[in-house]
Amino acid sequence: MYLFVPHTQRQDLISMFSIRWLISQKAFEFVIYAIIITNGISVVVDIIVFSNTPQNERQKKIRELHWYHMVFICVYATEALLKLLGLGLRKYFRSGWNIFDFFVTVAGFIGVVSTSFSFIVCVRPLRLLLLFKVKKRYHDLFETIGVLLPRMARVAVVILLMYYSFGIIGIECFSGLELKDCCVNTSWEGAYKEGGYHLNNFDDLLHSYGKRL
Question: Residue span of the signal peptide, if any (predicted)?
Fold first, then answer.
């Protein structure tokens, strides 16, 4: 049956199976892990070098690091593209790890390309979390957390409602109390001011939440 497939489609099938074979190899996976570790080490080195760079030379250093990080982003984008071609869109995004990897790659690319979103580059170290896939028990742990999170959302809503209720009660009962000078002329006056205990109040909902925490 394969012989009756048109030549163009036959080449596409060969390419798809070749890519699928490549991404399924342990060697491919460990090469990506090695690149991730190298990138993580480079981030630490970059921080140390940048902190020791004189103020007037930092803009030049930023431009150097810009292209340096772009190389890693291109490697990660190539990996994501190969997996998308080999696994297909649906199967690729069925894995939580692939979704996480895709998000970090896109965010890193946006942070490098656009200066308006340069703060996004702080997500790059999160890629080191992918190393947890090396150990199956860590993999199982994250999968369990992924199953529990949607169910924990209901618990979080209940806790939030409880905090809201107690916060409103605290505002009604204790708002407006003068706490800043409540320990004047006592043995606790110095420690009270230095500790900022007067900030623990019920004057508004935000402070009430902080008090409950």
Answer: none
- Distances, alpha carbon 200 to alpha carbons 47, 122, 123, 166, 210, in Å: 37, 32, 33, 15, 7
Determine the pLDDT at residue 54. 77
Helix ranges, 52-135 (H): 58-87, 89-92, 96-113
| 3-class DSSP assignment, residue 126 | helix
In angstroms, the CA 142 to CA 138 distance is 6
- For the chain, helix, strand, coil in percent to 5 are 85, 0, 15
pLDDT digits (tens, 9 = 90+) for 116-140: 554 455 555 666 666 555 555 555 6
Rounded to whole angstroms, the Cα distance separating 169 from 91 reads 50
Classified as helix, coil or strand, 181 is: coil
Note every long-range contact of 128-134, with CB atoms under 8 Å and residues 24 or more positions apart, other chains counting: 128/36, 128/37, 128/40, 129/100, 130/33, 130/36, 130/97, 130/100, 130/101, 131/33, 131/36, 131/37, 133/97, 134/33
Rounded-to-integer distance, Cα 86 and Cα 20, Å: 4
Question: In this structure, are residues 69 and 2 in contact, taking their beta carbons and an 8 Å threshold?
Answer: no
Amino acid at 111: G
Q: What is the pLDDT of residues 147-192, one digit of tens each?
A: 777 778 888 888 888 888 887 887 788 777 776 666 667 766 666 6
123, 107 contact by CB (below 8 A): yes
